[in-house]
Design a protein that fits this description.
By secondary structure, the chain is α/β, with parallel strands linked by helices. The longest helix is centred in the N-terminal third of the chain and has 20 residues.
Length: 407
């Protein structure tokens, strides 16, 4: 399919720097094609304000703004949280949002009879893979346009030059031009001074953090929060029943207030390079912690250990854009089985970036105070002698053989 045969393109549109200049670029380079912009609302808040006017003004024929927040939480965030999926300490905020957005892009592209789907991901990043693997899953024959792999623009500074030349309004300037991604689960920061790993993030500079404060600027008084789970899914906060989305939003407020969920890492990207990112995930960090605490009393040893092993694979699949794969679905089925007894309540104390265990309760708890106590119990300590003799038998035999052979 050459450029002249493409009449209608559906564009993943955020209104940020990349996608703002892509609309006129598509029309210039793809025979003045119709561009339909689609913004997936995954909780980026005020970033959606004024998008329709901006999209139309820069050449789009229409803008869809799709509320994907409930689907994002229920079908992506919560399954990953139940799995304990963490990629190199990163809670997968951007990774989890891409498949739900791309899925909706395909649905709209099919409904509109579009010839192609376009995204603004760079050729250096992971998001190009996440978007395109999802498109290939739902529409394997669909043409995908990735301008960063085609145009001659080489930097964000040149993007700004292009925007200014085409009178495209921007909410950023050259001095505060961090590359950011925001949704209801997290906010990421990349670029500028963060590209030097020797620079400390400007946590205390006004405007840098958006979801909370640094621990040193958090209140001097601790605050408790209690979360309730049913089969691994959060169902209540401080005794009040709420949806998972509502709980995450409330935890974002609490976590942000107490400086929780800041992460500064150099991660291994799928495309081979290392990249530094600063993440804010206040609510997600608390939710993962509470869920993990509950699992410590609800899961048996072998299940808990195997689940931790498989959580790495689960996280890699999510990070690498392989959400819609048989392996990810198989792992999700395993996780759901493990969560059948992960029901109970967890209390945490929040204080200056810390989450301190303050109580856990479950009717499925495998912890027995009567057995574990240092006081009198029915546990027969003499049984340990025979256990150790049998458990240590291979070591004893090996030592005897080594001695006989002068090893």
């Amino acid at each position: 399919m050459n450029n002249n045969t493409i009449k209608k393109v559906v564009l993943a549109y955020s209104g940020g720097l990349d996608t703002s200049i892509i609309i006129p670029w598509l029309k210039e380079n793809y025979n003045n094609c119709e561009v339909i912009a689609v913004s997936g609302n995954v909780g980026q808040g005020d970033e959606l304000e004024g998008l329709e006017e901006k999209a139309i003004k820069t050449g789009a024929s229409k803008l869809y703004v799709e509320d994907l927040t409930d689907e994002f939480v229920d079908d992506f965030i919560i399954p990953a949280m139940k799995a304990g999926a963490v990629y190199e300490d990163y809670l997968l905020g951007t990774s989890l949002a891409r498949p739900v957005i791309a899925k909706r892009l395909v649905e709209i592209a099919k409904a509109e009879g579009a010839d192609a789907i376009c995204h603004g991901c760079t050729g250096k990043g992971n998001d190009q893979v996440r978007f395109e693997l999802t498109v290939k899953h739902f529409a394997p024959e669909m043409k995908i346009i990735a301008p960063w792999r085609e145009w001659n623009i080489k930097s964000r500074e040149e993007e700004i030059d292009y925007a200014e030349a085409h009178n495209i309004p921007l909410k950023i300037n050259r001095e505060t031009n961090y590359s950011k991604d925001k949704n209801l689960w997290h906010l990421s920061h990349e670029g500028l001074d963060l590209e030097d790993t020797g620079n400390e993030p400007k946590y205390n500079e006004p405007g840098f953090l958006e979801l909370g404060v640094s621990p040193e600027n958090a209140p001097d008084k601790a605050e408790y929060v209690t979360l309730e789970f049913e089969k691994g899914v959060p169902v209540a906060i401080d005794g009040e029943k709420k949806s998972a989305k509502e709980i995450i939003l409330k935890l974002n407020e609490l976590g942000g207030k107490h400086g929780i969920g800041l992460l500064d890492i150099v991660e291994n990207r799928l495309v081979g390079m290392k990249c530094r990112g600063v993440y804010e995930t206040p609510g997600g960090t608390i939710l993962y912690k509470a869920h993990k605490v509950l699992e410590t009393v609800c899961l048996d040893k072998m299940t808990a250990h195997k689940k931790e092993e498989l959580a790495i694979t689960y996280a890699e699949l999510v990070y690498n854009g392989q959400w819609y794969t048989p392996l990810r679905e198989a792992l999700a089925a395993f996780v759901d089985k493990t969560q059948e007894t992960v029901t109970g309540k967890v209390r945490l104390k929040l204080y200056k970036g810390n989450m301190i265990n303050a109580g856990v309760w479950s009717k499925y708890s495998l912890y027995s105070e009567e057995i574990a106590t240092f006081g009198e119990s029915d546990y027969n300590q003499k049984d340990a002698e025979g256990f150790i003799n049998l458990y240590g038998l291979p070591i004893k035999v090996q030592a005897m053989v080594d001695a006989a052979n002068n090893k």
